Amino acid sequence: MNVTICFIGAGNMAKSLIGGLIASGYDKEKIIATDPSTEQRAALTQSLGIKCYEDNLHAIEKSDVVVLAVKPQMLQTVCNDIQAKIQAKSCLVISVAAGIRSVDINHWLGGNISVVRAMPNTPSLVQTGAAGLFANEHVSTKQKSQAEHILRAAGLTIWVDEETQLDIVTALSGSGPAYYFLFMEAMEEAAIKMGLDAKTAHLLTMQTALGAAKMVMESAQDCATLRKNVTSPNGTTHSAIQSFEQANLRQIVAEAMTAAQQRAVEMANELGGTT
Fold it and tell me: Hey, how many other C-beta atoms are within 10 angstroms of the C-beta on 214?
């Protein structure tokens, strides 16, 4: 891929994607970013060596792909401001703004625009992210490949056929890191109460989480099988798993994810302007 990419917004998600692209060998001369903050622009230029501008229209003029990486509450205003330029360029637009539907983005940009909506997550900051992608009817096969290349710079990418599935992606991988952080936090606290010092509890919790994830990623077996493999009958793990099951952990997780999914739908309705 040899297109010029413009990132509107120079926050953490933009930084993670730009950093991943450069680390994978993408020509930094083909990457542009904009941000209203002088400090943000200077920091990005210094850390990654890319050109940054304050003027969105000037940057879009030089670009083939535009990545909208602004806060959801700002997206409509940004789209309205750049609408004429996007219409003139007819370029691919990728949004990583949480909760804003592609139909609203397309409407704010004047219609008939190739829009890919992405739902990345915070581990993208360390290039181990997971992103769900949805393309509207105007996106070509070539443009889908371009979008995938950009998002893959920060981790795994998965396409969904229906945009409503992105609300499930939000509940699973978008919000999911916080679930694991909470579980790890609870494990640390329990270990400290049981007698371990805080540093030891923290290190063992982190390494255990990393090891478990690595085993799942590298094994041909599913999570249920791996769990059974380490759960000896009447052993220590068996006792812990029984306690989780008796506390209805699966139902707790299902209810939490449903709450996240429902909130994603609510946010899209609150922030959207066409549905």
Answer: 10
Q: What pLDDT, on a 0 to 100 scale, did the predictor assign at position 273?
A: 60
Per-residue b/e over 104-122, b at no fewer than 16 CB within 10 Å?
bbbbbbeeebbbbbbbbbb
Type of residue numbered 221: Q
Q: Are residues 141 and 254 in the same domain?
A: no
Consecutive 10-residue runs of the chain (275 residues): their mean pLDDT?
93 90 92 94 92 95 95 94 94 93 96 96 90 97 96 95 96 96 98 98 98 96 96 96 97 98 92 66
Residue 113, H or E segment:
none
Of the three residues 137, 161, 185, the one that is the final residue of a domain is 161
pTM value is 0.89
Q: Note whether 2 and 30 are within 8 A (CB).
A: yes
CATH number of residue 239's parent domain: 1.10.3730.10
Query: What is the dihedral sign for C-alpha 151, 154, 158, 161?
Result: negative
Distance from CA of residue 267 to its chain's centroid?
17
Per the structure, the count of domains in the chain is 2
